[in-house]
Predict the structure.
Amino acid sequence: MGLFILRRFGVMLLTALCLTFVVFFLTNLYPNLEKLAKTQGNQRMSDEQVETWLENRGYRQPMLVKYGQWLGVMPGFTNTLDDGQFVGTCARPGVAPEDTPKFCGVLQGEWGYSTVFKDDVGGIVSKRLGNTGYLMFWVLVLMVPSALIVGILAGMREGSVLDRSLSTFSIITTATPEYVSGVIFIAIFTSSTVGLKWFKGTATQAMDNPTFENFFLPVLTIALYGMGYIARMTRASMTEVMTAQYIRTARLKGVSFPTIVMKHALRNALIAPFTVIMLQFPWLLNGVVIVETLFNYKGFGWALVQAAGNNDIQLLLAISVVSVFVVLLTQLISDIGYVYLNPRIRIS
Amino acid sequence: MEPLSWTGSIAFLNPVLAIALAGLILSILAWILINIATTEGPVIVNPDGTLKSAAGPRGLAQTALRFTFLASVLLALAYIVLGVFLGSNAGIVGAISQQFLPVWVSLIIVFAMSVAFKRRLGLYGKLFDSPVGMIGFGLVMFWVFTGIFGALDLIVTHDPLVQVSGMKNKVPGTPLPNLDESQYAWYLLGGDNLARDVFSRMVKGAWIVVQIAPLATLFAFMVGITLGLPAGYYGGRLDTLLSFLANLILAFPVILLFYLLVTPEIIATGVPNYMAAVLFVFPIIFVGVLLNSRYYTRPNFRTPLLIGVLGVAIWLYLSLISTGGYVINTKDYAIWGLPTFMDLFDVPGGILVVFVSVVFVNSPTVFRIVRGLAMDIKTRDYVAAAQTRGEGPWYIMLWEILPNARGPLIVDFCLRIGYTTILLGTLGFFGLGLPPESPDWGSTINEGRKLLSIYLHPALPPALALLSLVLGLNLLADGLREESLKD
């Protein structure tokens, strides 16, 4: 088991390195840098001015050198401009050139400096991640139990009326992406034309003061899309368990149906949904980006959109590192959990 | 011109429909509740030995459900049929169903033909045995025909890009001011924020989806199959490497990938063109290997066949990736492609990058499915038999394993078209790739949502259109799965 986890960690690190290099490569292509120079410097810079601007700030170094600087295995780029301004990868406003550290990369715990928000990337990411974490917490609280209940009720008696109606419900939710269900919810529950003003159409206030009124719709929108899939997987695993030999034995022994479901079937039926829930995280991440844009909730997804829209290289890199680690960690947890929950795999 | 009401002269049907729908909802609820509360009714044994279940509350609820459902469907049909004949006299509903006349006719033809010949049509014919599959197929074909006829300018009432002054954010059914002869007199589903016709934009949006989604899914399948079969069949180092690459792409949040790939700056660097040049090779490899592995024992037949097929395929490939005589045309350098006079069609840069990124995102998942299926099937006896006969590995993969994996692959193909539709909508929603005035559903939803608290009509039609198409594809996949499991 220890070796297995160690190997998975190795693969994870390798994956993260490859992915960050891809992001690094794409964000450092020349047209992107040109856009960065124009938004940071002056919109009407000529091509030569753009070139010198980038040259002075170390953006024209070889790709691998820049990547090494970002990782913290190469000394940071420094330069003093003609007007005496000190610039560099490690330079921060208000810090004297002498105090600037030689290395500043991920390995030193420095995530860089956001060109859009004019702030430390580490601080921005942790703040936004906090907002999104709160959102995700409530999404999981709503989504997981209801999906499991729907799936178990549907899979309990395969082909029954309850099964068919709940399965239809889960198909409808998987067919409704967040931007469709969000728009429909906003139209029905918040607009003045329909008249049901039950909820707020934006979640901007929910960052400081989350209430049921301004926070329920975004949570519901994300939860619904993910729910159908988990419910269908739970149903499939439940129907499989319900046809197993030991359930038949229990029935023939005269155990009542509720007891069979609760005591015999449930524990075995929940192994598959556990892994599915864990693997659902990358999709939830997508949903978060859409819903945060739709409801104007300034979380991690919103920061992603801002960073990508303005080619904020270091913020984008930090965001991709975080999301890649979320994805890989959940994969790892699902693998370990699967082995832990299913004794047949542990033995073999 | 008078503004149109929703139902016009067939308004007398509205209370009837309301009653039928209320009855339907009540009987569904009653049906579910009764089925939970009661157990199976007692069974009566007939004298001839057959069994018959007594009509308890269960049977009653089922009958009620059947009748209210039939009544609702008949009423909906009545709206459509009356609308086709009465046109705008029957209000917005009538005018819209008259506009959709070619779609109704083609749907009736397709369904009549399919039901008549369903025993001879294999899996497709069996679809017409399952109500769920039929509903799904109907929804999908509705949008396919809408897309095709919309592209032929049969359904649309106005140019989806033209702005008519005075029609900004107008409610559905508003007549056009200063009407001239050739124009349609109303905005059937109202005007959007830029005074364009919402109805025509929705119809034109269907064409974009119908064009891109199935084709992109097909390409993703070609890539996934060409790489997944050897990975599953050979295993070993090749499998480890390919799986690592697939997991690499899968670990990327899709939206981040789109934001990195589908920007004007990236298009200017030519990265999407390189990706297109690589990804679009896979179908050629697939077809080439497929035919070669089958006919290599008969070189006299194989060689002309391969020359013909591959020649056409490579020509299509080159016309697909080259635009205006170049494969890649950036500021610094250019790579020559097919000369313009041989170029069959040009794909606009925006569409190409959307297409490429959707294929790129989908293919690793297909790869994993195909790999899993290949690993499962390669242990079967018929594969061992083929190996003993001395068949080559590619023959076994493409002509023994692949046909036997077709069931799950067809089901996944339907589901994946739906997922691709959702991805296209996501791209539009974030304003990536397609031009901002493009009538695709995602962009229209994105534009409409900004004024959603005051005007509902610009955002809801494309949202419901996308919902019904994806729902149709999901139901179709469900029906196919059910029917393919029956044999």
